[in-house]
């Protein structure tokens, strides 16, 4: 394999990984949006406001549904 071929192979692999990273970031943003919506629902159910995902995590751990 020539140096140029090796360089091209590395760039192709990097492109694949960057595309995968972009897709994962999009999934994370979508998940965070859903958690924000569930936080609002949680706040409505408990008649309070300002719940963040960390508070939801604590509530889930306290109820034994998340470890």
Characterization of the model:
- There is one protein chain.
- With 67 residues, the protein is mainly α.
- It is built from 2 helices and no strands.
Overall mean confidence score, pLDDT: 93
Give the proportion of residues in helices: over 70%
Major β-sheet, in short?
none
Rough outline: elongated
Query: Which ranges are low-confidence, i.e. pLDDT below 50, for 5 or more consecutive residues?
Result: none
Topology:
Blueprint: H1 3-45, H2 53-62
Short description, anyone?
With 67 residues, the protein is an all-alpha fold. The protein has helices spanning 3-45, 53-62.
Key features?
67 residues, 2 helices, 79% helix, 0% strand
